[in-house]
Write a structure and sequence with these properties.
Number of strands: 22
Family: Belongs to the diacylglycerol acyltransferase family.
Organism: Linum tenue
Largest sheet: 9 strands, mixed
Structural class: alpha/beta
InterPro entries: AB_hydrolase_fold (IPR029058), DAGAT (IPR007130), Hydrolase_4 (IPR022742)
Number of helices: 26
Helix content: 25-40%
GO molecular function: diacylglycerol O-acyltransferase activity
Protein name: Serine aminopeptidase S33 domain-containing protein
Mean pLDDT: 82
Radius of gyration: 28 Å
Length: 715
């Protein structure tokens, strides 16, 4: 069976374009066909070619052939051989990714429209919600689960469509293409796309049964650069609760099949998680429960659609197809060379996904796992994280053979910002009560960030608090007040994944990458400054963030400058800043020295410290003593966190810094002195803050709920 590319012009009635302004676009439809490859162009809107046959019909009939045009993205021919610029140049920070606006109900309604029999074979379609991707975006092929509809990414279409060319596989309800035939169909598409863009990766997202299909295709094509995303893959089918039901389903009378969706609904996914996708998180508890109850009731009314999506004969066929696919994929795991990202649900009642994740992580050569303990089998249709967020968080998004953390970086969306700073980080926001101060050119200190330049490049240089506890408050407030994202220079251990396991959840390190963290490297620093970014730099690095007892608010910097001349090369504005508050939030009870004095535990700590990547092997002084460890901390009754950004230092026109190392060193010492002065100022002034305690701030907010900010000390 060959891969057939059809092109034909169609109008866009579903976009409500005036009749006089309608345009024609070329649509690529690729389907399974036994005939030879051919291409047709220039047909009128009432004459099309589908699966090798020509039709001449009325406009309404033509539209019905394509399973509803609103499920197709109509785009012009792709431009080729374009240079790769930074994605951040084409995307605004806090862009709308649409996550939370679609639910499983939208999936069921759309699926009902898609399953109308047309006698056609499997084919690719492009959801119109995906829109037009940014230039140089890689292709993403979605391989569906048991339903075969291809709408399993309904909640993620808008976000993915921004940075991927999304194509979804649709397997018609009554299609009986065997597993090897589906593998061949996907493989032909893979080879075609690889031939047209050999330097780009191709993403295969396989949901349940689609996971078997993705692994099979990857095993047969080790020479193609693939990123395989598996979502509760059905490779564990032989150990599932569904396999024993196969004989029962075959013997079940057709009259009882309408009950199957309701019987299976409890094990297919987590209904609560499905209903919570578009739940308004900031509602009071009672209103939230009422809204959730209504959504659950509404959802139950749509379950009958499942019996139409998967009739009895189709369900039996699909289960046999999964059985074949599972066996096929498992026998070829050793041949998979692709990068694999595996999502496993902890509440999957259909497949033993958690145990399967452990098996696949050991059996695949390059497999990374993210575990979602509260989700069910239909993870992509449940409340949680956007698929794009997870891909970004594990550092898997790229547009060429290697990840470029600057040019391939996708800025955070509005939903990501709200998730990390207001939903998951709600307690941290309340506990820190962050105060942001800055210094104007005349030396006066003001509330807010008016003293920090907006025009980049800007280099913020400051003190790294214990365990980087300040990052959420600092980056969040900077983004909220200036609408500018800070690109933090981070330790490479955050990007290595060395200590991950099959039960690793989406964590703080992943969020660092989502929010702009970049591995420390001269090349990355160069790219950030050349792109006029706002860069966050901690000269003290890991040694300062993992300081010992008695070293709070102490600068532990290199003896020689490492960043001044690079900043001057690009004319960056350097802003020294100080931050205090770690001692108001946590108590350091066990530092590295304490841990090394504990028998048995010291060997474990030593192994971690020595196996981690080294950043400053050649550095002199205490900063070179960067032992990676997890200190023992005890929480305190929260106080408050304060930041003071000093007077900006211009480097434009400072040729003396570039030519003379001594001049650069003098500026470096001035910056260090300014940072320490800022810290000392805050330590002194916070003693006069009447709202330093979290309890005082809570009382203030209760008395003055209309005020956005809690006051602080007088400047």
């Amino acid at each position: 069976m060959a891969s057939l590319v059809k092109t034909f012009p169609v109008s866009l009635p579903f976009l409500r374009i005036p009749e006089s302004s309608k345009h024609h676009f070329q649509v690529k439809v690729r389907s399974l066909d036994s005939g030879a490859n051919s291409t047709s162009t220039g047909f009128s809107s009432d004459s099309v070619v589908v699966n090798g046959r020509s039709f001449t019909r009325g406009k309404d009939e033509v539209e019905s052939l394509f399973d509803g045009e609103r499920f197709m993205r109509l785009s012009s021919v792709r431009e080729k051989n374009r240079g790769k610029g930074a994605i951040s140049e084409d995307m605004d920070v806090l862009w709308d990714d649409g996550y939370g606006t679609k639910t499983v109900k939208d999936y069921l309604i759309a699926s009902k429209d898609m399953i109308r029999p047309d006698g056609g074979p499997p084919r690719w379609f492009c959801p119109v919600e995906c829109g037009e991707p940014l230039k140089d975006s890689p292709i993403l092929l979605f391989l569906p689960g048991t339903d075969g509809v291809g709408l399993g990414l309904t909640l993620h279409h808008k976000a993915l469509g921004k940075v991927f060319e999304v194509r979804c596989l649709h397997i018609p309800v009554y299609d009986r293409t065997p597993f090897q035939g589906l593998v061949k169909f996907v493989e032909d598409t893979l080879k075609f796309e690889h031939a047209s863009s050999p330097n780009k990766p191709i993403y295969l997202v396989g949901d349940s049964f689609g996971g078997c299909l993705a692994l099979a295709v990857a095993a047969r094509n080790p020479q193609i650069d693939l990123v395989v995303v598996l979502v509760n893959p059905a490779t564990s089918f032989t150990r599932s609760q569904i396999q024993p039901l196969l004989p029962v389903l075959e013997a079940m009378p057709n009259e009882f099949h309408s009950l199957v969706p309701y019987l299976l609904s409890g094990i297919m996914g987590n209904p609560l998680k499905m209903a919570m996708v578009d739940l308004e998180d900031r509602l009071p508890p009672r209103a939230k429960i009422e809204q959730l109850s209504g959504k659950l009731t509404s959802l139950l009314g749509y379950l009958s659609v499942l019996s139409e999506i998967i009739p009895k004969e189709t369900l039996v066929w699909k289960l046999k197809l999964i059985q074949t696919g599972s066996s096929y994929a498992n026998s070829r795991l050793h041949a998979v060379k692709a990068e694999v990202l595996l999502f496993a649900s902890g509440q999957d009642s259909m497949l033993p996904s958690k145990n399967e994740a452990q098996r696949l992580k050991k059996g695949l050569q390059n497999c990374q796992v993210r575990y979602f303990k509260d989700n069910g089998h239909t993870l992509l249709l449940e409340e949680g994280l956007s698929l794009l967020t997870i891909i970004k968080g594990v550092g898997k998004y790229r547009r060429s053979r290697k990840v470029d953390f600057v040019r391939d970086y996708v800025p955070p969306s509005k939903s990501e910002f709200e998730r990390v700073f207001f939903k998951d980080g709600r307690f941290m926001q309340a506990a820190t009560g962050t105060v942001m101060l800055s210094t104007l050119q005349d030396g006066s200190i003001v509330k807010g960030l008016a003293g920090v330049p907006t025009q980049g490049p800007v280099l913020l240089v400051g003190y790294h608090m214990l365990m980087g506890i300040e990052l959420q408050s600092l980056v969040g407030e900077y983004l909220k007040q200036k609408n500018i994202l800070l690109r933090g220079i981070a330790h490479p251990a955050i990007f290595g994944g060395r200590f991950e396991s099959s039960s690793s959840e989406f964590n703080f390190q992943d969020w660092i990458k989502v929010m702009g963290g970049v591995p420390v490297a001269a090349s990355n620093f160069f790219k950030l400054l050349s792109s006029k970014s706002h860069v966050l730099l901690y000269p003290g690095g890991a040694r300062e963030a993992l300081h010992y007892k008695g070293e709070a608010h102490k600068l532990i910097w290199p003896e020689q400058q490492e960043f001044v001349r690079m900043a001057a090369k690009f004319g960056a504005t350097i802003v020294p800043f100080g931050g205090v508050g770690e001692d108001d939030l946590v108590e350091l009870v066990l530092d590295y020295k304490d841990l090394m004095n504990i028998p048995i535990l010291n060997n474990y700590v030593r192994d971690i410290a020595h196996s981690g990547p080294r950043v400053r092997d050649e550095a002199k002084g205490e900063v070179a003593n960067q032992q990676l460890f997890v200190p023992g901390l005890l929480p305190k009754v929260p106080g408050r966190m304060y930041f003071l950004f000093g007077k900006p230092i211009e480097t434009t026109g400072r040729e003396d810094i570039l030519r003379n190392r001594e001049e650069a060193q003098q500026l470096y010492l001035q910056i260090k002195s300014d940072v320490q002065a800022n810290i000392d100022y805050l330590l002194k002034k916070r003693e006069k803050d009447p709202y330093r305690s979290v309890f005082d701030r809570m009382v203030f907010r209760a008395l003055y709920p209309s005020l956005q900010e809690v006051p602080t000390f007088d400047l």
